[in-house]
């Protein structure tokens, strides 16, 4: 695994790449990709950072780990490649945007268009073995992505963090809520959404309102 990450992140994360846990993680990921089918493709592992540069980050959405079926994962949480069927959580995200903002349901489930506007779509674990959800958890990725969240919290101002579901909400302790805005709700997965914990959270209009309050350009969701 090459740490193929955009230059804008390097001054903030280079010390992380030198740590023992990260070197062990690189060894683990290389062996997994060599011996098993893993996702996303190796050159897309750091896509979230390569499409959302450090200086541009204004919204952070935290997922857990990548989709584990063939061709789905593209390095951005909740996002799938062009032309693929939308997974259930993504369907519920788009449905909420539709009712919240009156935007028609999109054909493409590729959220690159959000990332390019400054939305960091960060999975806590950046890789996964095919058809084995959570298979690369607790190998070091979470230490790295926690460091990313802390770095954004420390080095930036007025970022909007969207924390969906119990796992993401635990990351709130890494965020300075005096400087940043945090919106929480249930997860968009059907299990949570169908119990009333997701729909109606209006996170997309609220995030844009908070961005405008901070004199930033709202996201075209």
Automatic annotation (TrEMBL):
Its main location: cytoplasm. Keywords: Cytoplasm, DNA damage, DNA repair, Glycosidase, Hydrolase. InterPro entries: UDG_fam1, Ura-DNA_Glyclase_AS, Uracil-DNA_glycosylase-like, Uracil-DNA_glycosylase-like_sf. Residues 50-211 form the Uracil-DNA glycosylase-like domain. The keyword NAD does not apply. It is found in: Cytoplasm. It catalyses: Hydrolyzes single-stranded DNA or mismatched double-stranded DNA and polynucleotides, releasing free uracil. The active site is at residue 65. The keyword DNA repair applies. One of its GO terms (molecular function) is uracil DNA N-glycosylase activity. SUPFAM superfamilies: Uracil-DNA glycosylase-like. It comes from the Bacteria. Its EC number is 3.2.2.27. Excises uracil residues from the DNA which can arise as a result of misincorporation of dUMP residues by DNA polymerase or due to deamination of cytosine. NCBIfam families: PRK05254.1-1, PRK05254.1-2, PRK05254.1-4, PRK05254.1-5, ung. Belongs to the uracil-DNA glycosylase (UDG) superfamily. UNG family. This is Uracil-DNA glycosylase.
